[in-house]
Write a structure and sequence with these properties.
This protein has 120 residues and is mainly β. It is built from no helices and 8 strands. It binds zinc ion. The site of zinc ion has 8 residues, from loops.
Length: 120
């Protein structure tokens, strides 16, 4: 495996995804193998633009942890990115399915997380 570049999970404000050089599948959650074809040494790391379309949205009204209590209600969205992978993240409360969105990064419960806003 080649060295993995840092992304938002390690404090760098970048969204990354993996592309399989073997079958072309894209995946957001980092794995040491391709979830589609199982290839173990063919994954490339790419940087996403942050642009996408809302696939689903759900408003969270109850805090799961004390750290998140200050943020409720907050919206969790599933976004289909222009790069072709789907990711879950925070987003504006008024986002609806089909909205075109762009990611920025905001503090949430002690870390900085991707946050989607409608493209005006
Ligand atoms: Zn593959």
């Amino acid at each position: 495996m080649s060295e993995r570049p840092a992304d938002w999970t390690r404090g760098v404000e970048v969204i990354r995804y993996q592309v399989c050089r073997n079958c072309g599948a894209k995946q957001y959650f980092r794995r040491n193998f391709c979830a589609a074809c199982g290839a173990t040494d063919r994954l490339a790391e790419n940087q996403a633009s942050g642009e996408g379309t809302v696939y689903a949205a759900s408003l969270v009204a109850r805090a799961a942890t004390p750290e998140t209590r200050a943020h409720v209600p907050y919206n969790i969205v599933l976004v289909d990115t222009v790069e072709g992978f789907r990711m879950m993240a925070h987003g504006d409360k008024d986002l609806a399915i089909g909205d075109r969105v762009m990611a920025r990064f905001v503090p949430f419960a002690g870390r900085v997380v991707p946050y989607f806003e409608k493209i005006k």
